[in-house]
């Protein structure tokens, strides 16, 4: 359903239910399935631009922190210096 309505205006409830039935949901369950769809979209942040617009929420991507070598103890540093010489 997201692919069909992404970044666009959602149709009225009756039209959504019709699409849900076309996807294979039983006629008796179409109202409940629409409610679950709308509640899920709300919780997922897809209605941030209005209840009638299905827009994927933005995700902040952060750079991973730089890898820092752990401090070496005195003996390991001396052994490394001897090996390099």
Please tag this protein with its features.
single chain; 85 residues; mainly alpha; 4 helices; 46% helix; 0% strand; rod-shaped
The proportion of residues forming helix, as a percent range, comes to: 40-55%
What quaternary form is this?
single chain
* Low-pLDDT segments, ≥5 res: none
Give the number of helices: 4
Radius of gyration: 27 Å
SSE class: mainly alpha
Shape: rod-shaped
Largest sheet: none
Average pLDDT score: 83
Question: In percent, how much strand structure appears in the residues?
Answer: under 5%
N- and C-termini, Cα separation: 67 Å
**Element string (H = helix, E = strand):** HHHH
The total of beta strands comes to 0
Give a verbal description of the structure:
The protein has 85 residues and is mainly α. It has a domain at 1-58. The chain has helices spanning 2-5, 13-22, 30-43, 74-84. It is rod-shaped, with a radius of gyration of 27 Å. It starts with a helix and ends with a helix.
Offer a quick outline of the entry:
The chain is an all-alpha fold and 85 residues long.
What is the topological layout?
Blueprint: H1 2-5, H2 13-22, H3 30-43, H4 74-84
